[in-house]
Predict the structure.
Amino acid sequence: MKNMKVIYNLFLVLFAIMFVSCDKQLTQLNVNPNGVDPETVNPNLILATVISNTAKPYLEMGFDGDVAGVMQYVQKSGWSSGLNKFDWVGERSWGGPYANLRNAKHLYERALEENMEFQQGVAIVLRAFNFGYIADSWGDAPYTYALNAPAGGQEDMFPEFDSQEDIYRGIIDELKNANTLLSKQIGDYKGIDPDADLIYHGDPAKWRKFANSLMLRYYLRVSSKLPDYAKQGIEQIVNDPGTYPFFESNDDDATMGFVGSYEGDAWPNAIAFDASESNFNRVQLCEGFRDELVALNDPRIGVWFNKVRVPIKVSTAHSPAADIVVDGVRYIHPDSMAVRNWVVYNKDTWVDDINAGKVLVDTMDYVGIPVGSSVGDGSSWNLNPNVIQGGFNVHCSALADMYKEAKGDLLKARLVSYAEVCFILAEAAQKGWNVGTQQDWYEKGVTASFDTWGVSDDLSAYLSEEGVAYDGSLQQIMEQKWIANWTVAHEAWCDWRRTGLPYFTFGPTVRRDAMPIRFRYGGDEKNRNNANYLKTVNNLEETSFTAQDGKDSSWSRFWLLQGTGKPY
């Protein structure tokens, strides 16, 4: 990637898109003679912005956002109630993805005017991804009449909410259109600029595979509600790869790297743009993820997290000292543990221990913070000797040092991966669909993840581990898919809601005694499009955890979950 050229393009696009995104409010515009006219802007100048504004927010939610906490990848040692305690009672704006969709629409329209079919196809894929994220997160949403405010009609200014089912069907149809647009040889396209394409550098064959792999995701998403539709769609893709090519290796992964020149184009929380390192330090391993990785002897834990700086050992080695640090190890005498009502963390009893008023002490090399474990902010976990909100904890595992960097070979926003596709097809095979064998796809998925993270030398031993060695269960597929979806927590959340897997435990201080399953609609929709908001909220199904909120609750079931008995 030519970094300076990309940055220059991004600045140009900001001029062009700034007022395009505001077309709901403006009917006349002053013309900036030094700016880029949105009516004539080259589509390539918009493309990089739409890609980055799709990939980075998706990464941020999946790496250290609230969903990453709920799915037990990470916890935080400060400013953490959404991650650590399911504090999802507030509303969430969808302004970001809809603003990006306005840009994607403009990209498509300009590409259509210029007869640039590659850019049209890419715009459709990005549109489908963003609308999919909205449907996955909120449920029913404006789709058919969304983004049409300049037309000025009542239905355009105050769009109805399409059903979640119609949105999923719609984006699958759009992806089929993209598959056709992207089916030509690269030399048959007009105006491809490799530097504007931050994912595949102008390769239409790769974008075509992305479109069809994303289609596999959404067919599986609706498989509990529309099993025949999903079965037909997945089998059609898998059994006709000439017409519907999909990911075949990690080289096909839809990922975006980072330039790292400033905070906006760098990996989240890079210390180059945070001298205190507070944003980096407060993101720490979650105990649920740790327990699974350690139980399976999973080598990926050492790629993603550091061992504790000062391990704790319960020992009489330095008796009669009750609590002492010697040679970088903290030794606590068993008698001192008993007197202070401290107990060693046990993954099977820790919730009961907390409820009994005991203080948990974790003595492993890797230590995480359990979800809902304390009334505080997580900063005091595991006898932290320096309790500072957002500070470093010598007795808890921090993110691996590579996550301090602004860019790196492994620091990529992943939208869809080959590993995910393999696990999708393993699940389809588990349903009895004609896609190949479950074991083959399952083991390919594990292999792809190991290759991604550079631990392939440990693969053979890992595939023989108890709990990893193929047993034909759905639980096994979903557990390995959850692990492989590190930094892609939003997709793992969608899988968990749909299957109830993996099984999770959490402590007594969570906001509700259940994991949240959707985002609440934002205030703008309630205030400005109230009639349609009220109509769609009626389609939600209350659960035993929604009494304090009413129907528009993060614990209400939308169409995708209604009647499935999942996840609760």
